[in-house]
Every structure is written in C-alpha cells, then in structure tokens.
C-alpha cells in the first residue's frame, strides 16, 4: 500500500527550513569574505539586485516542480518529461549534494572543534598571527578534524532520519530563531565597538569605483549559492508543500530571510575587522583566523566567540540537513521504514567521500590534484560547474517542458497577484536567468 507523502506541519516550518538551507556557510562564511575582496557595499548592492530578480525567479521554478509533482527530484523530472533524459537533472542534483556535503561537513567539523575549544577557553588571548598558526595546526591534525567531521555528520543523520516533521522541521524551528537572536546580540556588540563606523561604512556605503566585471559575476554566483539553487534542494523541500500553499509568498519569505541574514553577517563581521585594524579581504580564513583575534580584544570576548561559533554551527547544520535530505528522499522513495536505513547509509557514505577533503591540509597536503588540493578541487567542481549547470538546466527545462497555462496556475495559486506578475517571472526564467548563468559560467571557466 502506497504511503501518503509527509508534509510540513505549517507554512512557517517550511519557510524556516528552506531559509535554513539557504542560510548556512553561504551567507555567514562565504558572503563576508567575498564582499571583503570585491568592494564591500557595492558588491552587496549588486548581490541584492541579483537575488531579488534572478535568484527568486529560479527559486520559484524549483518550487513549481517540487509542489506540482510532490516527488523526489529524479521522479519529478521523469513525471514532467517521461521517456526522456531530463531526469538526469535530478541525478545531477543528488550527486552534487553528495559532493557538497562531503566537503561542507569538513568545514562543519572545523566549527565543531573551534566551538569545543572556545567553550573550554583555549581560543582567546592569542595574537592574530597565532590564530593563523592555530588554524593551520588544527586542520592538519587528522585525528582532531576526523573526529569533529564524524560528529557533524552524525548530528546531521540523527535529524534527517526522523523525517520532515519530527526531524528537519522541528530542528529548524528551534535553530533558526536562536540563530537570529545570537546574530542580533553579535551585531549590537559589533556596531558599538570603537572604530566600528569605518566597517559599517565599508559594508553599507557603495563605492562603485571598486566594481569590475568580476565583481558583478561573483555577485551573481553568490545570489544562486546563498539560496541553495541548482542542486534540486528546493525541489525536494517544496515537494512536501500542500497544494494550497502560495509559492510566491513562501519564496518571498525565504529570499527575505536569506538577505536579512547576509545583511546581519556583514554588520556582525566588518565593524570588528575595521575596529581592530585588520583587513576585510582575508579570504576564506576570515572566520577562523581574523574573528577570533577580534573577539579576544573585547570585553567578554570568549562568550561572544562561543556565541558566534554556535550560530555558525546552527547555520551549517540547517544547510547540511537539506543536502542529506535530497539523497535520503531519493533512496527511501517515501517509505518511512527505509528512511532511517537510507539516512545512515547515505550519511556514512558521504563521510567516507569527505575523508580526502578532510586530509587535504595534513596527511594529503602534498597530493596534487590538477594543481590544487582535493578539497579545493571538489569545491571548484561543485561551485563553478555543477551548481550553475544545474541552475541553467532547470531554467531551460521549466519554460521548455512545462506548459505556460500550467505554470501560471501553479505560480498564482493561493495569491491575488495580477497576471502581469506571472509574465514578468516567465520572461526572467525563460530569457534573463539562463543568459546570466551562461555568461557567469563562461567567465568563471576562463572563456571570457
């Protein structure tokens, strides 16, 4: 007997879970350092524009596929385009999520070990140079990062195995409000630091003289990355939606929360960086080498550092839930008895897949993979090839293989918005979004 597909218990539960997937390292870790090396406020303004126009249009496209079919990504594409190869978009999404989680969980493990050290007071009281040495020492220790990596994966498995309602939704409705509260505490402390005004100005006062073609393309990539687009995550999450829920209202809430978190991340990080004379263009190590130095110089710095790392762990876990969920729902095929087994098999398989990435800065540091570490090559493959490729294929599929009246019905169900809104969205998803993705991919791969 076919089991009824599980659904979110409430609209807010879905929004918080989807926003949790979108938040994560993309907003808290990646956006501040990408903004730091691309002009600050000008980058954020362009990122905001791309998120509102192109990111939201692609998000709605994924919502339409998921809510209409109410199936896992592979089955969804098979239903909408039977007897064709379009289902490979779903396969690409599942494979991409496995690869993303394999190195994402490594960074999650770094956060776990930093949080553990912070709670026991061994992170504060060092110079900025010592934090760089500490970070290098930690990520090169196979036993410490290996154990932390496994802990992060097990937490993710334990939540996902419980299903949508009792697992992901329940965890997200606890973690996301806590994340906002911690963020607000950090922002209040950051903007009241002596010298914080320069950091606030850097982040909120656009200097368009710093804008280059690369800045624009990085902002476009960040808009897609920060909304978890292109890997069928949002197809999976929206497949648990009721047929009566408004996709437009849900997408607006997810985009709004994602932008808010990105905004708070900038306000929490840049004032402290400038207040202590540090550089905003430190790159990916900003979180692990610069911020501990900032917190060590302020009153109750150890407490605020622990709060920040807890926030970062919550954000990273909510994204990890969505990455593992797409694999589990595809394997379990809506069978509750198979979900637990699928969660453990998929989670441990991803852990094994992530071991080379975990060892890339220690035991395997000399293992050259096409001129770089295994970790960096997996990151490049997913971020610059698989993710934008998936986004491009979805933006082509929706207007090509789904009938326009059908799309209009799905998009406007549950809203009182005028037909003109649909026409604007249809133009964006059919012409503007795929063209922008092609240009970004060609540039990132060095063809422009």
UniProtKB/TrEMBL annotation:
Q: Which UniProt keywords apply?
A: Membrane, Transmembrane, Transmembrane helix, Transport
The cross-references to PROSITE patterns, in alphabetical order and at most eight, read: NA_NEUROTRAN_SYMP_3
Name the source's superkingdom: Bacteria
Do the record's keywords include Translocase? no
Compartments it resides in: Membrane
Membrane spanning stretches: 12-31, 43-65, 86-114, 134-160, 172-196, 216-242, 254-278, 298-321, 342-361, 381-400, 421-442
In its UniProt entry, what is this protein called?
NSS family neurotransmitter:Na+ symporter
Taxonomic placement = Bacteria, Bacillati, Bacillota, Bacilli, Bacillales
